[in-house]
Amino acid sequence: MNHPIDVIVPVYRGLQDVIDCLDSIKASHNQQAYELILIDDCSPEPEVSALLRERASLGEYTLLVNEENLGFVATVNRGMQLHPERDVLLLNSDTLVANDWLDRMTKAAYAVDKVGTVTPFSNNATICSYPDFCQDNALESNTPLELLDTLFSKSNADKAVDVPSGVGFCMYIRRACLEDLGYFDVETFGKGYGEENDFCQRAIKAGWKNRFALDTFVQHTGNVSFGDEHNELKHTALGKLLKRHPRYDVDVQRHIAEDPAKSARIRTWLAALRFGSQPITIHVSHNRGGGTVRFIEELSRETSNQCYSLMLMPSLKKPGHLSLTRVKSGVDGLACEESEYTLYFEPHADQELLREVLSQLPLAGFHFHHMIGLPNWVMSLPKKLNKPWIVTLHDYYYMHESISLTDDQGHYFAAKPEHLNSAWLSSFAPLLNDAKICLAPSKACLALYSEAFPEATIVTQYHEAGRFLDHAAFPVSALPKTANAPLKVVIIGALSKIKGADLLENTARLCAKQGFNVEFELIGYGYRELQSKPKTALTVSGRYKEHELLAMLQQRRDSGQADLVWFTALWPETYSYTLSAAIEAGLPVVAPNIGAFAERLHGRENSWIVPWDSSADEMATLFDTLSKQSSELPAYAHDQTPAKQYTHYRDSYLSLLGTSASKVSIDPLEEGALQTWLEQTLPLTKADLSLKQKLRRKALYGLFKVRQAPLLRSVAKRVPLSLQRRIRDKLMR
């Protein structure tokens, strides 16, 4: 470019954003000449206007001032008319740029004929977003802006694709395109939203291209100027846009379906793994979701200041394979999401390949959560890579294949030695005994594991930073005293046999039969269809979204639809996230005297600990007594006081592994290193399913539906639990 480019930054509010934006522009280094033009759109914040005047007086930029607020569209139009011979780049005041960003944007604008606009990648840019497509994202912990932009530039050098529209947070516009089309349409789009989409659609109709520069990344906060009104503005603007360009939405949906920038995102993510600024922890687990995945995700967020987290697990997308994926839960947190950011390995043929890939990463160590569904050789990875590891004991799989210490009939056997297989224990002894430390989510869990693995170093470390042990922070409601009103008992979760589905059904049946003034609601579902009203006093409300559970309990409490929560578990649960929800909701609790319940409820008011093997008749009698507010409520002695929290993950997670937050420095510019890494790992991101794998997935879904079908409920009950488990495990491989 012979002429300078006008970089136009309209400013309305957000002092710190403006300061950060200006500082980032000043720190960037470009060969392309440009003039920085800031326009004060009559900011309502005096400190913003003062800053703009002060820095303009130092010669940092040209300052224009609107005497009244014109809005984004009219403001940038004013800026674009300042120098009619120059290309322009529109840049929001809540963006951050790095390196030679403008050089790459300019190069993309002239790389092919008839380029009208150019937009870079960003964390908040709809179809140009990274890492998650069409979402607002936070920057990932292992890639600060300067490094991330460098990785984009090296992984996708000179690459660009066509898009139906640029995104106005950072958009290069060639002057020839402006001369052809004119400026943004102020009359139609007012103060903002939709104007750049309209311009880009007009550009396409006039033969111009909108290009997406895949080698540039600009950070974007988003919606600083408009604040909370942006959703309404977007909705109004979309209506105007579709009226003028009826195919716009179709074009955008087609682009989303084709997703031509996907490979660029994957390449950059792979580069960030290899050359990121943080050490990496590999979380080893099953693929069955639930509390284990929730813990891993929460732990990864809590420790993101120390390390980047990956998860190694049996693949759901590509059955028969292992997946190495970033830690992010899927819908409702029920399973770890295998997004495009996943590497797949065949468990037998790719052992050496997985080890080779891991050896090239800046590993801090391994965190084992579960081995079910994984080949035993995975346990040898840390030693072969000379890396430390720790273990969290989420259930009892390392002691017994049932994970719950229950027999084939689903009966808890209290970890009696005659039920434990010495060969099974020996297979996991090296993993636990040689770990830096094993973390038990409750004192009860620690006691059982310490007996089975006396040589292992095991400590108590409650999930959720142990905050739900402080009962003073979560006041408990009293049972209601409304005359003649039924006692409303809530049960939460997906109830299997060992989680008390049969006990619940039988108790509800007895309460209905004996006319007790008690009603039960299962927020969730059973492993089979449970009998409900009128045959029992039970209502089953079905699946719920985990993130909505607390609000559901609070709403039921406030509306008189929930008086207490009953935990029906027939095995020693190691923690129980649903108990946390009940505690936070301030509801009374009835729970069994095994597992984590007794210690977590120690000293809590309006909470009753009952024998875990109580019969349905005994439970029905208890609830009848509670419903009558009798002064002779049964009391069950327990002395399970909670343990002291061992450590705080947020501050000292890596110290558990015996490593620090530093990593071996690897130069991402090292000749050939990046391309060699990408050539090795890109093929491992393919997740296409074979016909056999598709049939296996369909069979697993069919098995679930059979167990839920009312007509087949009695048949499902006759199939031994051990056989059901074996069939399920076979299909999930």
Automatic annotation (TrEMBL):
Q: Which organism is it from?
A: Marinomonas aquimarina
Protein origin, superkingdom = Bacteria
**Where in this chain does the record put each Glycosyltransferase 2-like domain?**
7-179
What family does this chain come from, according to its entry?
Belongs to the glycosyltransferase 2 family.
State the protein's name.
Answer: N-glycosyltransferase
Query: What Gene3D superfamilies has UniProt attached to this entry?
Result: Glycogen Phosphorylase B, Spore Coat Polysaccharide Biosynthesis Protein SpsA, Chain A
Q: Which GO terms describe its molecular function?
A: glycosyltransferase activity
**InterPro entries given in the database record:** Glyco_trans_2-like, Nucleotide-diphossugar_trans
Give me the segments passing through the membrane.
Answer: none
Alphabetically sorted, this entry's keywords are: Glycosyltransferase, Transferase
